[in-house]
Amino acid sequence: MKKNILKRSWAEPYKIKMVELLKVTSKQQRVKALKEAGFNTFLLRSEDVYIDLLTDSGTSAMSDRQWSAFMTGDEAYAGSKSYYALEQTIQEYYGYKYIVPTHQGRAAENILSQILIKKGDIVPGNMYFTTTRLHQELAGGQFKDIIIDEAHDPYNEHPFKGNIDLDKLDALVKKYGAKKIPYISIATNVNMAGGQPISMQNLKELRSYTKKNGIRIIHDMTRVAENAYFIQQREKGYANMSVKDIVLQICKLTDGATMSAKKDALVNIGGFMATNEWDIFEEARNLVVVYEGLHTYGGLAGRDMEAIAVGIKESVNDDHQKARIGQVEYLGNRMMNLGIPIVKPIGGHGVFIDAKAFLPHLSQDVFPAQTLAAELYVDSGVRTMERGIISAGRKANGQHHYPKLELVRLTIPRRVYTQAHMDVVAESTAIVYDKRHSIKGLEMIYEPKYLRFFQARFKKLT
Ligand SMILES: *Cc1c(COP(=O)(O)O)cnc(C)c1O
Q1: Which residues are CB-contacts of 198 (< 8 A; sequence separation ≥ 6)?
Q2: Which of 96, 129, 238, 297 is catalytic?
Q3: What end-to-end distance do the CA atoms of the chain give, in Å?
Q4: Which atom of ligand 1 is closest in space to residue 270's alpha carbon?
Q5: Measured in angstroms, how far is the CA atom of residue 293 from the centroid of ligand 1?
Q6: What is the second-level CATH architecture of the domain 64-315?
Q7: What would the pLDDT profile of 244-284 be if each residue is shown by its tens digit?
Q8: Using a 6 Å CB cutoff, which residues line ligand 1?
Q9: pTM of structure
Q10: Fold of 27-56+318-460
Q11: Among the atoms of ligand 1, which is closest to the Cα of residue 55?
Q12: Domains of the chain: which residue ranges?
């Protein structure tokens, strides 16, 4: 009998109830807007952008349920019922005991780093994240990358490029001693590696290693549900487990977490810190009052906490993740078919163009990824961002970090754009690719001290 070879496609498990009209600009307008923005896509005005793939952070579409939860927000200064709704949801879906809300992820990182890191400490992790590493450093720590080597190779198709190399970790423990390591900083679906997951097996091995050595695991759980979906799809033994159950299992292997609810949890603002240790919770409740607000709102409105609670539940829905990651894969596959060099496997929250391969005639000192992001905007009004030498910043000695990966990130907001938008994006990358040889680099003419990629300005090299 002939087998039916038609592969069923995914579709969104929702329909559109309201639309936001977009401005379509001319090339002339875009050239002018980009110049005014110092060739930094972060400095463009969003109304000059047609399809905004700058980030998936805080840009997702909330559901009708989240919007109605907004109306039930309890705006009491202290002891808000919305805080308890959020606490209960986090305990149930993520399994952490104590939580402190914060206005977004980096605020949770600040508080946790100040509590756990002493001057001279070492913080190993599976690739750095910009704000996470900065807070670790500001607290006196030193970040050490212990991700597997495959993660630094954009074409290596390892299914779990977010994995920790336990030998690298062991070498650090031997060199500095476990006492100097307050925790291992692990991210689920490693953002800077291109949205690549960590496997359950690797996490279990890390857990047993850290148990032996008395080291905590702190979980950057910003995209834990996307990571869980990849485990379900790729790891042996998880095909029949729900994303919801996998998420809980991941969290149970860690001791605490920081969360930017602006990603997985489908809200425009919000985050939290979570811990299973009472002492840390006590201190965090003290610190949050200094930086954020009372411990029962932490810089959020009651309605924000209600919307996060609903968003967490929606984020672990299997069909939601199938459509979310399906859309990213659709874009990535279209671009690959057009010959665009992208990071493989296609990541969870976006497609990452290898700017070194796209513009091989440009050295990293003239910022190929920054240049390519600028060119894409001029071509089609699609806004992307740099994840390369500009994002990596400078070392203590003033030299640039030279990261192996020099990427342009096309990040897909959740539930916002259609498949036709993805087609427009893919076609624009192909048009720019056709004229890649005529593209020259940029020169940095203004550089802020911290997280320079947000506000640096450039001028075109001629
Ligand atoms: C966005 C993000 C953060 C920081 O969260 P904010 O809400 O932007 O402050 C931390 N870690 C990762 C992996 C992120 O993607």
Answers
A1: 126, 160, 162, 163, 164, 186, 187, 188, 189, 190, 227
A2: 129
A3: 64
A4: 7
A5: 20
A6: 3-Layer(aba) Sandwich (3.40)
A7: 999 999 999 999 999 999 999 999 999 999 999 999 999 99
A8: 57, 104-106, 129, 131-132, 187, 191, 220, 222, 260, 262-263, 271
A9: 0.94
A10: Aspartate Aminotransferase, domain 1 (3.90.1150)
A11: 1
A12: 27-56+318-460, 64-315
